Automatic annotation (TrEMBL):
Gene source species: Candidatus Paraluminiphilus aquimaris
Keyword vocabulary terms for this entry: Cell outer membrane, Ion transport, Iron, Iron transport, Membrane, Receptor, TonB box, Transmembrane, Transmembrane beta strand, Transport
Record has Transmembrane as a keyword: yes
Name this polypeptide is given: TonB-dependent receptor
Upper lineage: Bacteria, Pseudomonadati, Pseudomonadota, Gammaproteobacteria, Cellvibrionales
SUPFAM superfamilies linked to this entry: Porins (SSF56935)
UniProt membrane topology term: Multi-pass membrane protein
InterPro entries to which the protein is assigned, alphabetical: Beta-barrel_TonB (IPR000531), Beta-barrel_TonB_sf (IPR036942), Plug_dom (IPR012910), TonB-dep_rcpt-like (IPR039426)
Similarity field: Belongs to the TonB-dependent receptor family.
Domain (TonB-dependent receptor plug): residue spans on this chain: 47-152
Claim: ATP-binding is one of the keywords in the record: no
Name of one Pfam family that matches: Plug
């Protein structure tokens, strides 16, 4: 339950809502909340009459709230949270407690101008030249396609104008932040109109590297995007809508600090740092391999709308190409894999805990790097990951994807009788995934999946696969008016996904530089992927099918009150982990495989593939307007049952690191949310919102001790509260002031939440060195943003601030149970700046 003294409770007492909606004049009361038109059911409808929980954000709010990236509008929506950490675009969105999983398919459909995006990074691209954002909660697969398990996010960009217009904007902020954008729009010939928008931004970020003394090498960002749109009215009945874009992004990557969670270490060393609370970390970035993430994305789509008698034909084609890599420091120094390399020995001579306490902190609190030269100092100490020495190696990853899709549907356009939609969908997705770990010899880095032993950064562990997915689907919906006040909608979708994976790892041995990856008897290098021990790695394939029905009954109880109830099924395809995942984990962590796992006996049940995820949801909600449309209140209660929930697990050990997708067999999430807007006066609007979740893991064969725990990334409460004041200051100018408060409750990031399980340290020392994640939940946090603007007919000047209280809170905690610790990422600190835009 929500504490009655918590900030969120006080906010809810004041007023509840999701997003501010502009106020319009009315002949009766003088002012009302404007009607919001949404396209959630693939036709234009009044938000208050659509039987779906929707948060809609229009262009005015986008500008006045300073929405520039996905996290900016996610913070305005209760029961929706976002994590953005490892690299640019690596976002995890939790909608009603169902989170989009790293390295698996998303849990929500992301649709831009009516076209479903299959690019995994498109969701977190720069938000500019946008007309409206709609966030739909609950299963939406029947209409919005693959992976719409938890909902759908619909983005509508600004349409080309019939008259010539242009806009330029610039902004500056702290941390050497700069941004600029330009838009040109107007007619192209007699029957077409075009629009081109360009955006660029750069920032040094909030954090600096203590080892190099440089800023702009940790959480820096450089983003340049170009987008074009052409709408051609071929005839009175046919419209073609062309969209194209290109994005080039450079940013920091893997900006984590580690914390131990092993009570036995705390007792043995007498240092609380070995059983630490990640929320109390004093972040210190000291890596000698600054993280870098490079992305280049190209996309193109065309949508055709053709009007016929009684129906419209809507067809779209989309193509996306993404090339991405990231390079960063490694994690395995404490396991001494590269201890005997000349570069590690050389680094330890000058970069040890006694020579550079600024890099490691007090001795054994918890890290201790001993000088080289004395053999007794080798294979001793506690190094930690991401250190200034080369002893931790490096990691390299690629995520490349090329995809195309076709969506064709018929939509009735009749004003009476049943309203219906029927369509087919096809997609072809080719994805390449690389995770490599290797030696840092001090000679620079080749940014490629495999580097031979003779290269500057030899690869010692490699996972490299190409995935091919073919998607076909049939879908439809019919809506009947059972009476003047009752409507029944029945929808369904059948998906089939054919998946295959081809291994790309060369059949070679590693460099032999990592002492943990050689034969203990002969010291000969082992295969570069454990699955090659059998001689070769076979290709794999599997098919996943699911029918997704949805039934909705809505009742217009009065002109001011609408009720609805719905039942729906969501589906997310199963898939494959990189080949060698199971072999690696079995050798190091499970008994019965002849490796260190004999002493660990973690009893993991992780395979090289994972099952499809199916969720079943029921929901009851209402939408109401009172006081002559000055007050709008929407609310919903829901319950979702999920089978084989796909969950990201991170493993670190002597081998380096490993990313996997596992499944939680059964979990349930129930909750309630409410949102409202109150036009207190013609000038003053108050808005806010609150969401509450009650979640439980009911079965988890991979981690049976986690049964009864909270679902990861499902905070029990979240909400926002805001106020916007608009006042004329003469000469056609308005003064606009806006303040937004956000609250997110305590959040667990793993299924284990205090249950002790064995770690790899049991193989090095003795039984009893178990992990305990009872301190590893992210604490509740709250932030305050504010903006004040002067708005004229052709220009706007804005002073803004984000996280004005400089709240220091964790963005993410990644627990690694068999390592016995967590990898933790901080959030952005206080930001402020000045923006100016001019419209021609």
């Amino acid at each position: 339950m929500l504490n009655k003294k918590s900030p969120l409770f006080l906010a809810v007492l004041a007023v509840t809502a999701t997003t501010q909606t502009p106020v319009a004049l009315s002949q009766d009361s003088g002012f009302v909340i404007e009607e919001v038109v949404v396209t959630a059911r693939k036709r234009a409808e009044n938000l208050q009459e659509v039987p779906i929980a929707i948060s809609a954000i229009d262009a005015t709010t986008i500008d006045r709230a300073g929405i520039e990236r996905a996290g900016d509008y996610i913070s305005l929506i209760p029961n929706v949270t976002l994590v953005d950490t490892a690299n640019v675009g690596d976002t995890q969105v939790s909608i009603r407690g169902i989170v989009s999983t790293r390295d698996a398919e998303s849990t929500f459909a992301y649709v831009v101008d009516g076209v479903l995006s299959t690019n995994p990074n498109s969701f977190n691209e720069e938000m500019f030249d946008v007309e409206q954002i709609e966030v739909l909660k609950g299963p939406q697969g029947a209409l919005y396609g693959r992976n719409a398990v938890s909902g759908a996010i619909l983005v509508t960009t600004k349409k080309p104008s019939d008259e010539p217009e242009a806009e330029v904007a610039v902004g500056i902020g702290n941390n050497n932040s700069f941004k600029a954008r330009a838009v040109v729009s107007g007619p192209v010939g007699e029957d077409a109109a075009g629009r081109i928008a360009v955006s660029t931004r750069e920032t040094d970020g909030f954090y600096s590297n203590s080892f190099t003394g440089e800023k702009g090498t940790v959480d820096y960002l450089e983003d340049t995007s170009v987008r074009g749109r052409l709408v051609w009215n071929v005839s009175d009945d046919l419209e073609l809508d062309f969209r194209a874009g290109y994005t080039d992004v450079s940013g920091g990557a893997i900006n984590f600090n580690a914390a131990f969670a092993i009570p036995a270490f705390e007792a043995a060393f007498g240092s609380p740092a070995f059983f630490a609370d990640p929320n109390d970390l004093d972040f210190n970035f000291t890596f000698n391999v600054p993280g870098e993430n490079e992305q280049k994305t190209s996309d193109f789509s065309v949508k055709a709308d053709y009007s016929m008698d009684g129906m419209d034909l809507v067809a779209s084609f989309a193509y996306t190409d993404l090339e991405e890599y990231l390079l960063s420091d490694g994690t395995s120094a404490t396991f001494y894999g590269y201890e005997l390399t000349s570069q590690c020995q050389e680094d330890r001579a000058t970069l040890n805990s006694f020579a550079r306490p600024d890099l490691f902190g007090p001795a054994a609190a918890p890290f201790l790097v001993l000088p080289s030269g004395d053999p007794a100092n080798d294979f001793a100490g506690v190094y930690g990951p991401y250190t200034p020495t080369s002893c931790d190696g490096y990691q390299y990853q690629e995520r490349n994807q090329e995809d195309m899709s076709i969506d064709v549907r018929l939509v009735s356009n009749n004003e009476t009788g049943p309203r219906w939609i029927g369509g087919v969908y096809w997609a072809e997705i080719d994805r390449e995934v690389v995770v490599a770990y290797g030696a840092d010899t001090g000679n620079g880095f080749l940014r490629q999946p495999y580097v031979p032993a003779s290269g500057p950064n030899p690869t010692d562990l490699l996972f490299w696969d190409k995935f091919d997915t073919t998607v076909t689907a049939l879908y439809g919906q019919v809506e009947w008016d059972l009476s003047d006040t009752l409507e029944l909608a029945v929808a369904g979708r059948y998906d089939r996904e054919e998946r295959s994976v081809d291994n790309q790892v060369p059949n070679v041995t590693n460099s032999g530089l990592n002492v943990n990856l050689v034969d203990p008897a002969t010291f000969a290098p082992l295969p570069i992927n454990p699955a090659l021990a059998g001689g070769s790695i076979p290709n794999r394939s599997a098919d996943f099918n699911q029918f997704q029905p949805k039934v909705t009954l809505s009742w217009a109880a009065s002109d001011a009150m609408n009720w609805y109830a719905s039942y729906g099924v969501g589906f997310r395809s199963g898939g494959f982990n990189s080949v060698g995942t199971s072999d690696t984990l079995n050798f190091w962590f499970n008994s019965g495989f002849g490796g260190p796992g004999e002493a660990v006996d973690a009893q993991l049940q992780i395979t090289d593939d994972y099952d499809k995820e199916v969720s079943t949801s029921i929901e009851v909600g209402f939408k109401a307007e009172f006081m002559d449309r000055r007050v709008r209140i929407n609310g919903a209660a829901f319950r979702t049952d999920v089978e084989d929930n796909q969950f990201f697990e991170f493993f670190a050990g002597p081998f380096g690191l490993l990313r996997t997708v596992t499944t939680i067999d059964e979990l349930t999430i129930s909750g309630f949310e409410i949102d409202a807007s109150f036009a207190m006066t013609e000038n003053l609007t108050v808005y806010g919102g609150a969401g509450f979740l009650n979640s439980e893991i009911e079965e988890n064969r991979n981690r049976p001790l986690s049964v009864g725990n909270d679902v990861p990334q499902a905070p029990d409460s979240s909400g926002n509260l805001g106020v916007e004041w608009v006042s004329s200051v003469g000469s056609g100018m308005d003064l606009v002031a806006r303040v937004d408060y956000q609250y997110v409750g305590e959040t667990h990031f793993h299924t284990l939440q205090g249950e002790q399980t064995p770690t790899i340290w049991n193989a090095f020392f003795a039984p009893g060195f178990n992990q305990d994640f009872s301190k590893s939940a992210r604490d509740a946090y709250s932030t305050v943003d504010a903006r004040i603007s002067l708005e004229a007919a052709d220009w706007t000047l804005t002073a803004w601030g984000r996280n004005l209280t400089d709240e220091k809170y964790l963005q993410e905690v990644i627990p690694a149970p068999e390592f016995g610790g967590t990898f933790n990422h901080p959030s952005a600190l206080r930001g402020y700046g000045l923006d100016f835009s001019y419209r021609f």
